[in-house]
Design a protein that fits this description.
The protein is mostly beta strands and 152 residues long. It is built from 2 helices and 11 strands.
Length: 152
């Protein structure tokens, strides 16, 4: 009898870690009682336009990816690492999974087996030769073959 084991499906939901920033203009004069705004990146005083993101304020030119130093523009997707922005490309480069078949980064749901990850569309059922889908009931047979439960 074949060795049959359950698979694990993981989903990366960009909505859970997707952040945004907003541009503001600080035209109000400073008073003795008002709080001085400090940039969350360079820690210098903010005087003029600033971005709000990650529960902090930033100079527009300071709001850059902590890895590649490219500017993260208002409306652009990014991830948060240690209360600083990390661009989407760097997030996948540093923390992403590459498909064992096509070698591309996996954005969205992935099929995980051991230390390997796959795009569903890169793997076919060994029983019926159809491409796998996120909603399919799957098993692994002989520790290497993906198969639909109905094909077992």
């Amino acid at each position: 009898m074949a060795d049959v084991q359950e698979l694990e499906v993981e989903e990366i939901d960009l909505d859970d870690e997707d952040f945004s920033c907003e541009v503001h203009d600080d035209d109000e004069p400073e008073t003795a009682e008002s709080e001085v705004d400090m940039c969350g990146m360079c820690e210098a005083i903010i005087d003029g336009q600033y971005l709000t993101a990650l529960d902090n304020k930033f100079h527009p030119e300071c709001f850059v990816c902590v890895n590649c130093k490219n500017k993260v523009a208002p409306g652009q997707d990014f991830f948060e690492r240690n209360e600083k922005p990390l661009c989407v490309d760097c997030h996948y480069l540093l923390y992403g999974y590459k498909c064992k078949v096509c070698k591309e980064f996996i954005k969205g749901q992935r099929l995980c087996w051991g230390d390997d990850a796959f795009h569903f569309q890169c793997v076919k059922c060994t029983g019926c030769a159809k491409t796998l889908c996120e909603t399919d009931d799957l098993k692994v047979v002989n520790k290497k073959d993906f198969i639909h439960v109905k094909c077992c």
